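Why does residue order matter? Because the sequence determines the fold. Keep that principle in mind as you read this record.
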Amino acid sequence: MDPIHQFAVKPFVPFHLLGLNIGFTNASLFMLLVLAFVSIIMLLGTSQHSLVPGRLQSAAEMSYEFVASTVKMTAGTAGMKFFPLIFTIFMFVLACNLLGLLPFSFSITSQLVVTFALAMLVILVVLAVGFSRHGLHFLKLFVPSGVTIWLLPFIVLIEVISFLIRPVTLSVRLFANMLAGHITLKVMAGFVTALLGAGAALWLVAILPFAANVVLLGFELFVAVLQAYIFTILSCVYLNDAIHPGH
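Structure:
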């Protein structure tokens, strides 16, 4: 089994406009499923107001409190104006990561174009907020205070390069982690299938890669949540730069 084949984007309803392929694909389908999944959890969870919350209400309240505390911790109370954006990004990435681990599903966040689009959205919002709030003073972000004059050009150059590569590092980190995890799971599953198909004598041996795959799946669940958190908190840090560029 080819472990890369699972990432192929397959068109369900081909459609071309001005030379661009904008048809409905398996990636489009799973994005809609993620949207429906998150919407159902939040709508059903927030519709209940029990003193002893059920599972859906607990999931909705815990996710809200978790993202709200992350935004306040990194961007202050001023950052709460961007809570809807950050919460949407967190829930989307988390749901994509978790649903992508289900058998026969499609991992949306293993597509670089998706993670790069999310990263560019964050950076464009940072630029829009920074220049709209502070004008050209936003450029003070690239001029750290307390630096000697002869070192300043080099530091400014490093700060500008660091800012420009943010969408690359933000997107590649999430993409690479999810891609590597899915490939590893597929390879281990391939070992199990190959050993089971090799005859009854090797069935006991197949237990080893099967057990390893179970452990890897547990680890990938942890990575899925961790990567959603990292993407979210870095987005908050970048937004804090736009809100408080002199800090």
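The radius of gyration is 22 Å.
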